Amino acid sequence: MALLHKGYGSLLNSAVASRYTTTFGVDASYTGQTMAMYDRAPRRIPDTLQTLLDTVAEATGTDFNFVLMNFYQDGTHSISYHSDDEKFLVQAAIADDSNVDTQSGFKLQYLMSWCQPDFATVTHDANWTMLAGLNPTIASLSLGGSRDFLMKHKDDGKRKEKYPLESGDMLVMQGRTQSKWLHSIPKRTSSVQPRVNITCRKAMNAAGTNNYYKYNVGDDGVYRMINGKMTQTGNT
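Below the sequence we write its predicted structure tokens.
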């Protein structure tokens, strides 16, 4: 497992989270000559994760430059309702489901809020048309234990959705999902197995890189799984 960091506390988007996190990647504006723009040196995406990123990009028709990893060790690890609507995420996509590609190996759930109704799901691969805009596409892969993925409409809190995400599921949020909906992974008192969540994103500028490394790496300890227990093995 990659070296992880305790992702406790409040994030920039006001979410309260308790889980282990790490991140790899750099935004689209990076040229190698712009290091003064970054609070810390960006980290190259490891080969194994880059292969995964390329596979997800092919399945969704969206190119990504960041991998965020979350480790939910048990039911006490969670993240509160929030939306990933940061301004540095500005790529959007529309699905055309007239053709189905079943070769990707993922079970996909597309969360679409581009047209009316604000929210809909498509449970297969699709052809995509890329659009410029303020509505990001985020792909989220679940590995390990099942956890509920909850959604709540920002304007009508009575509109709610629940998706039990199993190991191997990939959930794709796109269109106005972030601007219209909040999502969370709630705490669970029942026994749940450890879950790894890998999210693929595209950051367009240095603000995105600085945000991801600040809130997913930070300046606290570094942890590794040793004999079935997360153990601090050094400092960031």
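Residues 40 and 146 are 34 Å apart (CA to CA).
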